[in-house]
Design a protein that fits this description.
The chain has twelve helices and 15 strands. By secondary structure, it is of the alpha/beta class. The chain has four domains: 93 residues, Chorismate Mutase Domain, subunit A (Up-down Bundle); 90 residues, D-Maltodextrin-Binding Protein, domain 2; 80 residues, Periplasmic binding protein-like II (D-Maltodextrin-Binding Protein, domain 2), CATH 3.40.190.10; 85 residues, Alpha-Beta Plaits, CATH 3.30.70. It comes from Marinomonas spartinae.
Length: 373
């Protein structure tokens, strides 16, 4: 043992020199990649023109990240390696054209966290007060893409997002799945034992109900517009030593300088929210895709049965079915359906054609890569 200890001072400088050399190589290769990205932008502008050029290609990025994970041999995990490449790609894309991404705000929400996960940190973030404002921001061209929540594994579908697709021509260009971890947060100068009120979004309060019942049964729970708003209120109250707490995530904790009293307090450890990326472009097949449809069914016996049978006959896997009022006439409904595959795939085309023969309206909301990270 003493011999091995004596060798450590001799080997550490060598290892550090090796790391420095590797870092230099990595840096040179990243800059070489960045220069290639700049060349890609020049070629696109020359071939497509300023008005028609599309810099962000969701299918291309999904393919690159999948290959990164497939060839990864460790010791870094697949997702960790993909996150590194995600940020490299984000920085390189920003050299081509910085992207403005609208999201359901304010700053510090899980939706912002999802936007950063999907696009990387080299974007211009644009927080919106409501989901329909995110859609309008993208429709107007003020933002290149928008990110909105669509469903949570514990609390179910976000109806406002589904309803927004009825009156828009925007396409779904991607999806993000974000594991939701809630923390109980206070200001640094507050004694957690003095907390009398806990602020958070109503869904977060619901997702932590059992934990709150067990550990904070006497604290009053107050629903606010978002977790980030709850964190902001706690941060401001901390200046006056008012003993309140918030339930929010890591990004809000960092943004507002709060302290974690308890971490990961959600009742279900697999609590996950799915987000959609909306934009104006159609996305080409990536090899592992999902398609979303909006369907208005005819008011006739067996209408839903015949719609669903089309998926079975063509061997297409339907992954989600939601029903919402059509707002056209009383007791009239529209269906939102997700299925595996791209609408250009032969089997998926057959399904869509059968649905069009049975339904009064069939609209492809988008085909997009299945979430990679």
């Amino acid at each position: 043992m003493s011999d091995s200890i004596q060798t450590i001072p001799d080997t550490l400088p060598l290892l550090r020199d090796r790391i420095d050399a590797i870092d230099s190589q990595i840096q040179a290769l990243i800059n070489e990649r960045a220069r290639c990205a700049q060349k890609v932008a020049e070629v696109k502008l020359h071939e497509q023109g300023e008005e028609a050029v599309v810099f962000y290609r969701p299918e291309r990025e999904a393919q690159v990240l999948r290959r990164v994970m497939e060839r990864n041999e460790g010791p870094l995990g697949h997702e960790e390696m993909a996150k590194i490449f995600r940020q490299i790609m984000s920085s390189c894309l920003a050299l081509e054209r910085p992207m403005r991404i609208a999201f359901l705000g304010p700053e510090g929400t899980f939706t912002q966290q999802a936007a950063l996960k999907h696009f990387g940190a080299s974007i211009i973030s644009s927080p919106m007060a409501a989901i329909d404002e995110v859609f309008r921001e993208v429709e107007s061209g003020a933002a290149h893409y928008g990110v909105v929540p669509v469903e949570n594994s514990t609390e179910g579908v976000v109806n406002h997002t589904l309803d927004s697709f009825r009156d828009t021509h925007l396409k779904i260009c991607g999806e993000v799945e974000e594991r939701i971890h809630h923390h109980l947060l206070v200001s640094p100068n507050i004694d957690p034992a003095d907390v009398t009120h806990i602020y958070s979004h109503q869904q977060s309060l619901a997702q932590c109900r059992a934990w709150l019942d067990r550990y904070w049964p006497h604290a009053e729970r107050i629903a606010v517009s978002s977790n980030a708003e709850a964190a902001r209120l706690v941060s401001e109250a901390g200046m006056s030593a008012k003993a309140i707490a918030a339930i929010a995530g890591d990004i809000a904790c960092e943004l507002y300088g709060l302290v974690k009293v308890s971490a990961n307090i959600e009742d279900r450890p697999d609590n996950t929210t799915r987000f959609l990326v909306v934009g104006k472009q159609d996305v080409e097949p990536s090899g592992c895709d999902k398609t979303s449809l909006l369907i208005s069914a005819k008011n006739e016996p067996g209408a839903l049965y015949h719609l669903l049978a089309a998926f079975d006959r063509n061997g297409v896997d339907m992954t989600r079915l939601e029903t919402r009022p059509s707002l056209v006439s009383r007791w009239d409904y529209v269906f939102y359906i997700d299925f595996v595959g791209h609408h250009q795939d032969k089997a998926c085309q057959s399904v869509i054609e059968e649905l069009k023969a049975r339904a009064s309206e069939v609209r492809v909301l988008g085909s997009y890569p299945v979430a990679v990270l």
